[in-house]
Amino acid sequence: MSGKAIIEILGGLANVVIVLIVAPFFEGVLRKLTARIQSRQGPPLWQPYYDLLKLLGKEDIESGESPPMQRFAVYLSFAAIMTVACLVPFGSHAPANSIGDVLVLIYLLTLCGIATMLAGLAAGSTYSLIGMNREMMSLITLEPLLVVAMVIGAIHVHSFRLDQVLAGSVYAAAGFPWSGLIMLGVMLVSFQAFVQRVPFDIAEAETEIMEGPLMEYSGPKLALFKYVQMAKLVIYSALFVALFIPWGHTGLYPLDVLIHLAKCLVMVLGVTWVAATHARYRMDQAIRFYALLLGISVIALGMAVYGY
User: Fold this and answer.
1) Where does residue 21 rank: exposed (0-12), middle (13-18), buried (19+ CB within 10 A)?
2) What is the pLDDT of residues 250-300, one digit of tens each?
3) DSSP assignment, residue 88?
4) What residues does each domain of the chain span?
């Protein structure tokens, strides 16, 4: 095995460890700040770690219509998001750059949503099927926004390589980067939906359909799905930073990791403020909102093709 391959493996493992450790902490920050904004005391910052450990220690009860599919869905979702962690830069270039490109990254992110839909379908209850339908509609209308953002970056740098696209490539236009600035605005206003937080937590919607696709899950499998949701907050934040706020590298890996995570934490604080001050949208309202953003994204894509 070559030295480069060993470095990529170690870098990927480092990213996975970072996501596994930081994801519950970011969730704790989100819960605590939400409580403060709403004039409540809130849980301790470490509560998500305790919640995950408690669920992992519970009995694994399978009450859905297809237990094998339920098991497959949760393992598929967790494996996909951990693989994505190996492809996303955290203070350095994407570790697994030689084994995947932007297209692989998009496929894996989509696979996470598909796994959630499989979970709802396997559960078979009315609530889980409603949640699955909502997840499907969100996936079809929301994921193209991220695809367009990455394709715009790929057009500017003439490459699908992760180390080139996930390095502020949206601003690498020949002229003034209008397409990159437009996509910055689009991704900012849609970021809440990507991480499935209020007002766009429509598929989960605890007060309406009680966890949606995860209605029939409990114990360790529910813990893994919760972990995936927490990890998405970190990974989508890291993707946003890499695409739109890539500056500030020092060349020192530990310091660059801390700087990157600090930027991600700012994203989490923004998500928290929006979630704590807005009511949930209806599904039809969300779809119209996504459609509007998709139309704007297509305009930005056309501008990128012409060098803007």
Assistant:
1) exposed
2) 888 889 999 999 999 999 999 999 988 888 888 888 889 999 999 999 999
3) S
4) 3-305
Contact between 180 and 154 under an 8 Å Cβ cutoff? The reply is: no
Let me know: does 117 contact 92? Beta carbons within 8 Å: no
Is residue 84 within 8 Å of 108, Cβ to Cβ? yes
What pTM was estimated for this model as a whole?
0.93
Rounded-to-integer distance, Cα 132 and Cα 78, Å: 18
Residues near 242 by Cβ (< 8 Å), separated by ≥ 6?
88, 89, 166, 167, 168
Closest to 142 in 3D by CA, of 281, 16, 245:
281
What is the biggest distance separating any 2 CA atoms in the chain, rounded to whole angstroms? 59
Alpha-carbon span 263 to 134, nearest angstrom = 30
The two structure tokens encoding residue 132:
């699955």
What 3-state class would DSSP assign to 176?
coil
